[in-house]
Each structure stands twice: as structure tokens, then as C-alpha cells.
Amino acid sequence: MTPALSVSNLRKVYRGGTVAVDDLSLAVEEGDFFGFLGPNGAGKSTTIHCITGIATVTSGTIKVFGIDAVKDYRKARSLVGLSPQEFNVDVFATPVQIVDWVGGYFGIPSAERKKRIDELMERFDLTEHVKKPFRALSGGLKRRVILARALIHKPKLLILDEPTAGVDVELRLDLWRYLGELNRDGTTILLTTHYLEEVERLCRNIAIVAKGKIVRQGPKEEFLAGGGIEGAYLAATGATPDHIAAGAA
Amino acid sequence: MENVIGHVNWIGLWTIIRREMQRLLRVPIQAFVAPWLSALMFIFIFGYVVGPRIATIGGHKYLQFVLPGILMMNVVNAAFLQATSQVYFQRFMKFVEEALVAPLSYVEMIVGTLAAVVFRTAATAVGILIIAAVFGGVQVVSVVEFMFWVVIVSGIFGLLGIVIGLWAKSFEQLSALNIFFITPLSFVGGVFNTVEMLPPFLRWLAWGNPFFYFINGLRHSMIGFNEAPEPLGALLSLAMLAILSVWVWRLFSVGYGLRE
């Protein structure tokens, strides 16, 4: 079966020479819930930016459901939804405008877009906030708008870059439930997060990236069998619990 | 992509334009009222205060002579400001990423931006014409020629604005071209005077200045007054439009200022 996402030998060098991603390869099977972990600056967001077109690719190939994300970028992008780490929105616009514009960019006809926006506003409890500008919303509400925006075109591959950072427990639990439903309905999900509990609860496969390279990859059970995700993560990234304890002392 | 017709994402393209119109309607004073008010002041001073004391130029009242220049200055400013603010604002607040991750081609993004530019310049021009009509200064000899100059010059300064919007790293840089080149060149490009009125040793300021040809072209379309071979101005403008189009397309295709 064609993987939902296939990244081969990806390399990204920024102007100025910083190597952010170095010969990174990974495959996410269709229907998977994939955890993409690593410390800050490891290359997770850069990899996501290369997949979605926010960053240019220095070398390597990226395929989304077998479609080349660089050569046939329009087709590939129509299949992907991105919830980025940062709030990259027009802060003076309302939630409905934000979601509506992106729906338009994805070519969704007006009537269908309106119906979908109503569904999403209701799903994310945004109905009473639809007329407020984005900048007037709380952190949790802002995160909901970003998620609604990522889902407007019903993407087959959903990429979530730290979707629960800064949100309260209630929204986090609600979001976990919703992501589980989406995944059961067939949406492939790639999740980056620093909350290992989230990974343990949601993901089936995990990859750990450090200094731009994949340092460990496999099914969640393998990580759990070897002493838990946290231990595997710290060992793979070179920061053992002993190091941390010594540092804290 | 099911909603792409004939390789063009029409809904996406229309959304770029619609979105920018909605943004403009959030700042109507800045976008429309300011140029209308500025033009009103120029028209009032030159039509009522200074104009009656100046002899006719080529058989035309001074207000009729000066109006195409005032109009062209505002078209240039509206086009440039629209493109720079649209591109830079999106980059500054990072919501340009909304378009980058969507199935939009570079050409659709450029055409969408330029369509918003033409919308703003057309609205600015219509407003100024209405104001001038109140003062009895409006005359358009050739509507087709008039449209040609408004659209071509909007395109040139829209494209130039996109380049600056992609290049700028600060609001200071964003306004530099306008302050140091566009405003001074438009003033010496024949807005208020004919080339003959300039001392001979300064006439190169007009002949070597693209603004002179834009203003001259628009003036010819409005009152039939011409100081330069018109095909030369039209060819120069079309060449500038073509060069800038290729340049902007190239910048988009390599992701300059857009992609990391």
C-alpha cells in the first residue's frame, strides 16, 4: 500500500549554512497515528515545513499518498492539513473569516464551505466567538481556530505541530477524543508534541529526531517494552535521566 | 483537485482577491479617504486658487492640465502601497503560510495580488474623477487609452510593490522606495508643468523619467495634450511590465521572502 507520507533522504540547509534536517527518512502508513518526537531545534518543525511547502527542500524527496510534494505540489497540498505551532493568522480577522479564507484557498465552493464552517465552529465550541477578532480570543480558543482551519478541507493527512501547547486540560482531553475519532474515520495523523503522555495515549508508531536525523523509529510497543517512551526518548536524544539528575543537582 | 477547472484554482484565486477587499474595508480611511482628500486639496488649490492666475496650457485650463498628473500620482501610490502592504503584512504576521500550504500556484498568487491592486487603484481613480467633476475639471478623450494607462501603471507599481514587500525586513525599508524615488520622480515627471517650463539643462529630468511617460500618456487620454511620442511611452511601459512580471514570477518560484 502507498504510504500516506514518505520522506526520503531529506536535507534542509538554511541560508547561512545551518543544517536543520540531515538525510532524514521516514514513512507513515495510511491510517496511522504517528508520533514525531524530538527536542527543541531537532528539526521537527523544519521537516513539517518542507512537507507542507512553507520551507524549500535542499535535497531529497517527499511524497504524500505517492504524489511528489515538490513537483506536483498542488495535488499533494490538497491532501494535507496543517496545524502549526505558531499562530500564523491575520489577528484582526474573525474565526469564521480565517477558516473561510483557507477553505477558499483549497477550492471549496461557497455553500459547502459555509456548511463545513458551521460544523467546525460548533465542534470546537467557537459558535459564541465567531464575531470576535482572533487577537481577542484566549489561548485555548485561538488553538481551536487553528485546528478548525486545518480541518476545513477534510485532509487525508493531518499534521499537528504541538497542538496542545498552552491549552487547558479540558480542551486537551476533548482534542484527544476528537483526534481519536478522526483517526478511526481514516485520517492519517502526524503529531509532534513534548507531552509524552499524549504520544503514549494516541500514537501507534513513533520516530525520534535529534540534530536533524532520525535516531530511533518503531511501533509504540517497542518503546514501551524497553522501559517506556521517556527513557527511550532521553537515551535516543543523548540526554539520559542520569544527565538530567546531575544537571538539576 | 476536484475544484480546479482548466488548471486554475478559480475559487482560490477569487478568495485571494475577496480577502484583500475585506482587509481594505477594515481600513477605508487609510485606503480610500486619504488619497481622495489629498486629491481634493490639490484640485481645490490648482482649480480655484492658483489655476485662474495661470494662462492656459495648450488651450486647456490649468486644472484640466494638472488633473491627469494628480490622478497618476495617486494611482502610482495606491498601487505601490497596496502591493507592499498586502505582501509585507502577510509575511510580517506569517499568515502568508495559509496560502503557501494551499493548492495555489505562484501565478494565481501573483494575479490575485495584482487584481486587488487594480481594485484599489480603480476605486481611488473613480473617487478622484468624481471630486474633479464637481470642480468641472474632468474630460476623457479616449476611455480605452485612459483604462490602458491606469491598468498598466497599476500593474507596474503593483509588481514593484510585490518585490519590495518580499525584500523588506522592516517597515522602514518598506517606505524607502516611495520616499526616495517614487514621490520625487513623480513630482519632476510633469505633474504640474510641461517639459518646456523646465530650464533646458533640467529637461533630462523629464525625458529620462518613466513617470513623465505615464503622466503624458494619461494626459493625452484625458485632454489630448501630448509632449512625447505616445508609442514610445506605451512600449516603455509594456516592457517594464513584462520585465517586472518575469522577475516577480521568478521570486515566487524560488520562494524568495516567502518560504524558509
UniProtKB/TrEMBL annotation, chain A:
Domain of life (superkingdom): Bacteria
Gene3D superfamilies recorded: P-loop containing nucleotide triphosphate hydrolases
Keywords: ATP-binding, Nucleotide-binding, Transport
SUPFAM superfamilies tied to this protein: P-loop containing nucleoside triphosphate hydrolases
Database matches in Pfam families: ABC_tran
ABC transporter domain span: 5-236
Protein's name according to its UniProt entry: ABC transporter domain-containing protein
Source species of the chain: Rhizomicrobium electricum
UniProtKB/TrEMBL annotation, chain B:
Compartments, record wording: Cell inner membrane; Membrane
A Pfam entry, by short name: ABC2_membrane
Protein's UniProt keywords contain Repressor: no
Keyword Transit peptide recorded: no
Entry keywords, A to Z: Cell membrane, Membrane, Transmembrane, Transmembrane helix, Transport
Membrane topology, as annotated: Multi-pass membrane protein
Highest taxon in the source lineage: Bacteria
Family: Belongs to the ABC-2 integral membrane protein family.
Protein name as catalogued: Transport permease protein
